[in-house]
Automatic annotation (TrEMBL):
Oxidoreductase is among the record's keywords: yes
Molecular function as annotated in GO: aldehyde dehydrogenase (NAD+) activity
Limits of the Aldehyde dehydrogenase domain: 12-480
Family classification: Belongs to the aldehyde dehydrogenase family.
Enzyme class: oxidoreductase
Name by which UniProt lists this protein: aldehyde dehydrogenase (NAD(+))
Entry keyword set: Oxidoreductase
Source organism per UniProt: Wenjunlia tyrosinilytica
């Protein structure tokens, strides 16, 4: 158990409002205590970032690259100390922690170390201009240049705390911005450690700050602050809409990566085993706590029974339990509140006439916040369980007759983050992808490409990050004309 302070202006700050416990979702024991930041401490962090901005925004890009590269080195070197804390506060399985939680964060710092050196100007062809009332004529040259936005508030989700934060602060710092981070209340301890790691890597004081809190007050203060130029948020659509409304009062730039209700369309010529294994990732990957998961499986009527049976067998083969056991695939959800929320969705599906093929009851595992991998079949497309993001190990299977019906069902929610198409004819799948109102479409895979622009249509968000698009997200375009 550790007692952490706020990280403001390059040093630990004792929180006047005290600390709150962070609980291990598998054991229900306290992992450590995180600081409660009041609006006053949040504003101190913003002022520190504001002061540091003038120097950091004009720093040599090679210096920024070296610091981000060194951060990746230090995070790798400290993995044996950071990983157990990260595992304990998230409840992630050993497999997810060792392959995705820390290694991906290291990769992101490394990627944006290179990104700091990418060209930040786009030369434009000279244009002849006639003389006029404004100025004499001549040959006019111009360039579009990417400039840092300023102070960026980064508010992150609980499923991949360090990965998610690294994906925001690395491109933001590479572009010359300064940052105030506010991690999710459920698991902020590992994120607090990034302050010292970045300082050791050579980051000047005040460029990166971390504030935490058990409720919404710290995040609300960050969004409301006049000293913050941009909010980058990953989390629920409901909270994203409130951030957009509040941030609009001070014309903040916004990057909002919000919820999803991914549809996996399985055409009649698809390889059913591939489709089933891909959809099964909803259960097998961090207990379904991922916004890109294929949580709705839309199968052509001719293969629907085979898909449902394949999913049933897949779910039955998954080991659920202690995330520290090497064979465990499905660990706990982040909290009792989230477990209860997921169970309420399952109960609602029963009430609305859907069929619970497997799962649907609480596993006999104590302690811990567990939900069994659950397959819901024959739900109506408009049913709550088929419309709302559940963020747990629940897959909903529905049949369709033809492509038009599949597209209508897939597009028939408020979300549009990540969909999937499974077909032996990739040209057909490509054409079908164009009809999906989704920011991302996977064809015969749930794998991601790290350089693609990531974000959503509709209620799934605003803006794009990932690869060079992440650098663009944390910059403003300035036209210079001569």
């Amino acid at each position: 158990m550790e007692n952490h302070g706020l990280w403001i202006d390059g040093r630990w700050r004792e929180p006047p409002a005290g600390r709150y416990p962070v609980v291990n979702p598998a054991t229900e024991e306290v992992v450590g205590h995180a600081p409660e930041a009041s609006p006053a401490e949040v504003e101190e962090a913003v002022l520190a970032a504001r002061r540091a901005y003038e120097t950091w925004s004009r720093s040599d890009t090679r210096e920024r690259a070296a610091i981000l590269d060194r951060t990746a080195d230090l995070l790798s070197e400290r993995a044996s100390g950071v990983a157990p804390l990260l595992q304990a506060e998230t409840g992630a399985t050993i497999r997810v922690t060792s392959t995705m939680q820390l290694p991906t964060a290291v990769d992101r710092f490394r990627r944006y170390a290179r990104g700091a050196l990418e060209p930040d100007s786009i030369p434009l062809p000279p244009q002849p201009a006639r003389s006029g009332p404004l100025a004499p004529g001549g040959l006019i040259g111009a360039a579009a240049l990417r400039r840092p936005v300023g102070v960026v508030g980064c508010i992150t989700s609980y499923n991949f705390p360090v990965v998610n934060l690294a994906g925001k602060i690395a491109p933001a710092l590479a572009m010359g911005n300064t940052v105030v981070a506010k991690p999710a209340p459920q698991d902020p301890l590992s994120c607090l450690l990034l302050g010292e790691i970045l300082q050791e890597a050579g980051l000047p004081d005040g460029v990166f700050n971390v504030v935490t809190g058990s409720g919404p007050a710290a995040g609300e203060a960050l969004v409301a602050s006049a000293g913050v130029d941009m909010i980058s948020f990953t989390g629920s659509t409901a909270v994203g809409k409130r951030i957009a409304e509040a941030g609009g009062r001070t014309m903040k730039r916004l990057l909002l990566e919000l919820g999803g209700k991914g549809a996996a369309i399985v055409l009649e010529d698809a390889d059913v085993r591939t489709a089933v294994a891909s959809a099964g990732s909803t259960w097998a990957f961090h207990s379904g706590q991922i916004c890109t998961a294929p949580t709705r499986v839309l199968a052509h009527r001719s293969v629907y029974a085979d898909v449902v049976e394949g999913l049933r067998r897949y779910a039955a083969a998954l080991e659920i339990g202690d995330p520290l056991r090497s064979g465990t695939v499905v660990g706990p959800l982040i909290s009792a509140a989230q477990r209860d929320r997921v169970e309420a969705y399952i109960a609602g599906a029963r009430e609305q006439g859907a069929r619970i093929v497997t799962g649907g009851t609480r596993p006999d595992l104590k302690p811990g916040f567990y939900v069994a991998p659950t397959l819901v079949a024959d739900a109506a497309p408009g049913a709550t369980v088929a419309q709302e993001e559940i963020f747990g190990p629940v897959v909903v299977a529905m049949p369709f007759e033809d492509e038009d019906e599949a597209v209508a069902i897939a597009n028939g929610t408020a979300y549009g983050l990540h969909d999937y198409v499974f077909s032996a004819d990739t040209g057909r799948a490509w054409r079908l992808a164009a009809r999906l109102r989704s920011g991302n479409v996977g064809i015969n895979t749930v794998q991601r490409h790290p350089e693609t622009p990531f974000g959503g249509f509709k209620d799934s968000g605003v803006g794009r990050d990932g690869g060079s698009f992440g650098l663009h997200a944390y910059s403003e375009l300035q036209a210079v004309v001569w």
